[in-house]
Amino acid sequence: MENETRLLAEDISDIEAFLQEEVEKECENGYYQIRFECRYIPKDFLLQTFQEYAENNHGFENFECYLECQFYQYYEFIAREEEFKNIIMSDASDRGQDFVERLKEYLQSFDNRPEPFEKAGYQGISYNFEALLEHDYNLNIFLSKEMKISYEIPDNSVTELMVSISGSGREILVILDRIANKEVKI
Hints:
two-stranded parallel ribbon
């Protein structure tokens, strides 16, 4: 005989109601809100990400898409989702150990996939990437021959070229994307 307990329909209904309450309590319109300590994308991070993108766009449509993906990884949003799930488990403990065990069993029945949270209305993590692009930047970028940018000066006289650009984060992204995609003659 198996040692496994089987969840009753009543247990499942209770757990699903609990998850829905938690999503409504912890999320805004189904999105777990993240508040950043920073108000802009750090300049060093922007430059490093640009250099990576310029060398190989990694299949991204444009620099902004690549930057947002790298920013997502940099701030460990996956860990933030785990934080959200830990809050739920902590709140579940207020209902007793038996409820926690049933909740764990329910979640394990989905192989820890997100479906039970999505069913409860969870949409994912929300962060305002656009607000991070409102900052003004002054950047100096060194371009080398290896980037194969079109220089309007004799090739053998230039090994590196420094370009200074300034503007809002949005403007900078457009310029950097054009440079990385060799759409700018310098």
